[in-house]
Amino acid sequence: xxxxxxxxxxxxxxxxxxxxxxxxxxxxxxxxxxxxxxxxxxxxxxxxxxxxxxxxxxxxxxxxxxxxxxxxxxxxxxxxxxxxxxxxxxxxxxxxxxxxxxxxxxxxxxxxxxxxxxxxxxxxxxxx
Length: 128
Known about the structure:
The chain is mainly β and 128 residues long.
């Protein structure tokens, strides 16, 4: 499948304040069954691998990288690496919908047992 133009929307709530960012990127399936997807723009390279009740997320930016395995309604861990600095977080995946290059995931982030953020990630094909 040839790469397609995608609108990538990220929302995050920290301390009761929502912030949303939108970016245009190229999306492509790395496997025929669409279980591995890649979204890429000048600022970020995002790789997602879907299982029946989970999604593994890897991000690469100029500031660092992160990786996490999210499972529906289960606590999992992930980490963010910036140069020699590593931060570990816990995650709970609340919702996941995946159909081709269009997806929606909603998850909470915890640190030291305390919820610090609610996040969502949505993609939509804008040009086939």
